[in-house]
Fold this sequence. Notes:
This protein is mainly alpha-helical.
Amino acid sequence: MEHLNELFIEAGTLMLAGMVFVFAFLGLLVVFINAVLAKLAIKYPDAIPQTKSSRATKASNKSTDNVSPNVVAAISSAVSKYRSQHN
């Protein structure tokens, strides 16, 4: 029984040492990656997205609100033809 207790203590020690090693390795990896990304962000900054003016977006919204009657007729005929072929 004494031998079994020693094995459990050794297993616990190995498990704890392994967990500490993995935690330390992952922590160093995060620090290293953040340091590399900080240097790369200085060399290659993000592009600034161009925003549309409010007048341009209002004009484009008006043109998309009205759907041409020809488009509605074409879609309706295509749907009815599809339904007649698949029923």
